[in-house]
Amino acid sequence: MADIPTAAISRLVTYLRILEQLETQDVSRTSSNDLAERAQVSAFQVRKDLAYFGRFGTRGMGYTVPILKRELVRVLGLNRTWSVVIVGMGRLGQAIANYPGASDYRFQYVGLFDVNPQIVGQQIRDLRVQHTEQLRDFVSATPVDMGFLAVPPDRAQDAAQALVDAGVRGILNFAPVVIQPRTTERGGVSEPGEEWRNVTIENVDFLAGMKRLAFYILNPTLKAALTEDTE
Amino acid sequence: MADIPTAAISRLVTYLRILEQLETQDVSRTSSNDLAERAQVSAFQVRKDLAYFGRFGTRGMGYTVPILKRELVRVLGLNRTWSVVIVGMGRLGQAIANYPGASDYRFQYVGLFDVNPQIVGQQIRDLRVQHTEQLRDFVSATPVDMGFLAVPPDRAQDAAQALVDAGVRGILNFAPVVIQPRTTERGGVSEPGEEWRNVTIENVDFLAGMKRLAFYILNPTLKAALTEDTE
């Protein structure tokens, strides 16, 4: 699986979302054409993306919705439980903790952190918000798979470093900044610190969506052209 | 500009975010290699994405940060003001309204809507939250470029239809569902209603980020391989 583009993984997530909606509508079969139209990509793209991971359909018969859904859940690793801490429990962190559907996927919030004394100590979803200073001790004592960063932009870098120092290997960053690994000098060359080895950062950016939307409002034919590109 | 992949637009947004951060760090020059490394794509990809829109650098000299930033702002249409309404002013809608940085981009909130009587009438960012029933009248009287949907999943479809009926042509959907245009029958064929012509929907999905992160935590070498693919 060495050559799978990141965009293909994003599209798998979109296909899974579409399959879930088809299931709630009691639709039991779909096709690459149907998925393509709903995802606004080409049918060729759908088949290529799925082919990275196996053969899920029957030639000329399309896909069985619950089977393809189950397979994508497995490919994405969503058939296991993920222990998550949220750093930053302002409006955004609270919106995340209460986002509908996260619990469907066994994302389990095990710790909530903030630096604001008015928020520390509050009870949110059966958890007492802890001070971010306690993050390292907490992660030493509790297995944590992912950290969600919902802090203001100017605190994101330090909060990310605190998560990585504490041993968390996956970060979902909601702040509108690009997290950079702390670099260390070795033989005159600066390189990411050892603690950043195998750390994955994914960005969720409200502004990114707004910016894409601005572009497509100004260029509506681009989107339309893609929708029609379904062979 | 008929053949620009949607993924290229997403990457432009990422490059812009990186350029903004370089600017705050007083870095005045960058290169396709540098941008590529920070965006976790190949340098070839960076050059190809930028080439859709013009020639922004000097061969062998790289890019001037403020100039490339200004050009991407222009390409994305972020040098003009966008009037925005938010439908759904629970935790998520409030987090959006207060998201840092949106005001940098002349996204201007002109109306906030909810159905919850405890939220309607509240004052948020100098606006009084109105009942969603008033959306159509409001949009008739006030130019609105975009609607942000922050309603629960089971209300997203109706809220999107209300926005489109009211004449809004761009929707940023934060609910974890795929919005489907209301179809009408014409000559035995069901097709999207006329009101959906040139409507653009962009999805921002918290869960999508969580799912991608799960995949990359399980497959860390995939991400590493991409980072190294910088020629």
UniProtKB/TrEMBL annotation, chains A, B:
Limits of the CoA-binding domain: 77-178
Keyword Ribosomal protein: no
Pfam families cross-referenced by the UniProt entry: CoA_binding, Put_DNA-bind_N
Subcellular location: Cytoplasm
Lineage: superkingdom: Bacteria
UniProt-recorded Gene Ontology molecular function terms: DNA binding; DNA-binding transcription factor activity
Gene Ontology biological-process annotations: negative regulation of DNA-templated transcription; response to redox state
Keywords (A to Z) from UniProt: Cytoplasm, DNA-binding, NAD, Repressor, Transcription, Transcription regulation
Coiled-coil annotated spans: none
Binding of NAD(+), residues: 88-93
DNA-binding region listed in the record: 14-53
InterPro entries referenced in this protein's UniProt entry, alphabetically: CoA-bd, NAD(P)-bd_dom_sf, Rex_DNA-bd_C_dom, Tscrpt_rep_Rex, WH-like_DNA-bd_sf, WH_DNA-bd_sf
GO CC annotations, alphabetized: cytoplasm
Family according to the record: Belongs to the transcriptional regulatory Rex family.
Protein function: Modulates transcription in response to changes in cellular NADH/NAD(+) redox state.
Subunit (UniProt): Homodimer.
Protein name: Redox-sensing transcriptional repressor Rex
Organism for this UniProt entry: Deinococcus puniceus
Lineage start: Bacteria, Thermotogati, Deinococcota, Deinococci, Deinococcales
